[in-house]
Design goal:
Elements lengths: L2 H4 L10 H5 L1 H19 L12 E5 L8 H14 L4 E5 L12 E2 L6 H4 L1 H10 L3 E3 L3 H11 L5 E5 L11 E5 L26 E4 L15 E13 L5 E2 L1 H7 L5 E5 L4 H10 L4 E6 L8 H6 L3 E5 H4 L12 E10 L3 H9 L14
Parallel strand pairs: 1-5, 1-6, 2-4, 2-5, 6-7, 7-8, 10-11, 10-12, 12-13
Antiparallel strand pairs: 3-4, 8-9, 8-13
């Protein structure tokens, strides 16, 4: 896997010369992170506890690992179980001057909300609020939606101002990379950091252990329905392959780990003639999409930023993501949420 394909610098994938040279900087980063965590544990900084359970979905590494699709799946799963979930998010790369905090509606401009919160609002049919101050966003959401009985935080594992009842760490196929902290490796915190559960493709993805006694739940990612961006037609992956068997198939993505997306499509039997990756959260350039032959498959997140008037939109298809977690995960999560009031095991103080 190349650095471009993985979305990580090449030295984050192994313990080579460049990574070793960066270890002093990683030690400094580790010290700062440890002091910050100590401040929350000792109560020097105080977290706000919501009156409902809070589930944080995050990762320990820099870059995307598929957190947002997990939040989307959790919201639907909790609704099916009789809960009324709400979602809070920072809203990465929001427009300067956008309201703080802000409710996200299906027609909210993506530059105000951030692309992932807008996608969650459109796909989940539950309240979504964004803001750099997650407790403020959570309080605003609960004031406006008193029916909400569980909060999901998209990302925010390292944002301790919002007390949490369950911490879920999401892995992709890269796992922990070389296992070292930034900038020598991809980790924001040590891999041994406590968490309540880990979700990922295998217990030792990337050669990393699951990290302590927390349970590990396998998570399989597969393509769901494909939706045509011009007319909304929908096809299953097998129908799509048959309908376009005589045309080249390409894929483009602006996500944290585009290689995982392309590999998933190939595993589903799509013979991709070309793949193109651009920086996470960027819009796919129209000129780039015009260059690609045949039909082009993009993620649902990227589809948000394809203008409806764009020429050739009928060649673009957005593919949904179908998650298949370990059968034991949902009963485990519902049992955790049913416990009621929860005190963080590492002694975080809250108001």
């Amino acid at each position: 896997m190349t650095a471009v394909a993985s979305g990580w610098p090449r030295w984050w994938l192994r313990r080579g010369l460049v990574a070793c040279c960066l270890l002093p900087a990683a030690a400094l980063f580790a010290g700062v992170a440890a002091l910050r965590r100590l401040a929350w544990r000792r109560g020097w900084l105080r977290a706000w506890r919501a009156p409902v359970p809070v589930v944080v979905v995050g990762n320990l590494s820099a870059g995307g690992s598929g957190k947002t699709p997990v939040v989307q799946w959790l919201a639907q799963t909790l609704r099916d179980a009789g809960h009324h979930p709400g979602i809070v998010s920072r809203g990465y790369r929001r427009r300067r001057g956008a309201p703080e905090p802000m409710a996200v509606e299906p027609d909210t401009p993506g530059e105000d909300s951030g692309d992932e919160p807008l996608l969650l609002r459109r796909m989940c049919d539950c309240p979504v609020w964004v803001g750099a101050d997650r407790p403020a966003a959570a309080r605003a959401l609960l004031r406006q939606h008193p029916e909400v009985d569980v909060l999901l935080s998209d990302d925010g594992l390292q944002h301790y101002a919002l007390a949490r009842d369950v911490e879920l760490v999401v892995l992709d196929a890269r796992g922990a990379g070389n296992g070292w902290l930034l900038p020598a490796g991809p980790l924001r915190e040590p891999w041994s950091r406590p968490r309540d559960a880990t979700l990922g493709p295998s217990p030792t993805a990337g050669g990393a252990a699951t990290g302590g006694p927390a349970p590990f739940f396998a998570l399989r990612r597969q393509p769901g329905e494909l939706r045509n961006l011009a007319d909304g037609r929908r096809m299953s992956p097998s129908e799509f392959r048959q309908a376009h068997a005589d045309r080249p198939m390409c894929a483009a993505a602006a996500i944290g780990n585009p290689a995982q997306f392309f590999d998933m499509l190939r595993a589903a039997g799509m013979p991709l003639a070309r793949t193109v990756a651009v920086r996470d959260h960027d819009a796919l350039p129209e000129a780039l999409l015009r260059e690609l032959p045949g039909v082009v498959v993009v993620t649902e997140k990227d589809a948000l930023k394809c203008p409806l008037g764009q020429a050739g939109l009928d060649r673009l298809w957005a593919v949904g993501l179908r998650l298949e977690p370990d059968p034991g995960f949902v009963p485990w999560l519902l049992a955790r949420l049913a416990r009621g009031a929860w005190s963080p095991p590492d002694g975080f103080s809250s108001t």
